[in-house]
Design a protein that fits this description.
two-stranded parallel ribbon, globular, UROD/MetE-like_sf, Uroporphyrinogen decarboxylase
Amino acid sequence: MLEQYLEDLENRLDAAVEEELEAEWRLFLDGCCPGPYFRPRRRQPAPARIEWPKIRINPALKDLELMLLRELAAVSANVAEGNGQILNIRCNYGTTILPSLFGVGIFYMDDEHDTLPASHALPGGADGIRALVEAGVPDFNRGWGPRVFETAAYYREKLKPYPKLSEYIRLYHPDLQGPLDLAEMIWGSGIFMEFYDNPELVKSFLALLTETYRRFMRRWNELAPPLNDRFPAHWGWGHRGKIVLRDDSAMNLSPEMYREFALPFDRQLLEEFGGGVVHFCGRGDHYIDLLAEVPQLTGIQLSQPEYNDMEKVFQHTVDRGIPLLALSVERGVEPALAAGRELHGRVHCY
């Protein structure tokens, strides 16, 4: 079943169109965008020549062919619409990849929701976390670990006979979250009291999660190197550096707590992997100035500008040469331009 879709997509890709789009992205990432903001489009849309199926996530989690077909369907839609997203696919097992290595319980949404699985916190509270810290970095052959690397190898094998797919579709790293997000998922909401009651255990756990992320990502880079040597992409947008960290849980911390419990571990990973982007949902303006001090930070992606003091965000990102990626036009870009705010060509939006 898969080959007909691979052939359809291979035949629709135009190397000149993709090269032109990537050249525009390089200009933006190099700080040379000619306009006030960056909203790229493909010069020529290429509609599908066959009907692509709708694959729900739960069946895809159990079947490598369905997983690849689901990922490629999104690529096909981008090419058909002619939008400016970089073509990319991933081993899409969601936020539970690294938590599953520590033995968390995974729960699956009903098929009708078409939503990735989530995880239960480990039982035992602080005692259970202390046992994890004492045990050290877990075996990568647990949980989703083997499946992630098996999927990456499968993708590479299936795309290899198709020159344009291999050249222009990036395989981006799986959702490894970030140390603080991982800590909350595994520990549960009780972690927020432990910042006060048991700070040294929290830091020890964050150090363990940082080391686990580091070793998993090193293995990823060894076993699933990029399909090509172009700049990386994530969620359809290009970026500098090699990783995208998630910092959703940081919205619950004061700036002082962020400085003590989150920033040092994020910094270690950004330094380790030659820089990268930090994503956060919700509010992040209360620590954006601290994060922006990290030299290896290559971009910020925030999903809800309406929850942030965007003037403060702009001051500590675009004014300092740090791009904002995938910012909402209606909720982020247009209000800024209407207020006369200079964006320096450093904001990307869909």
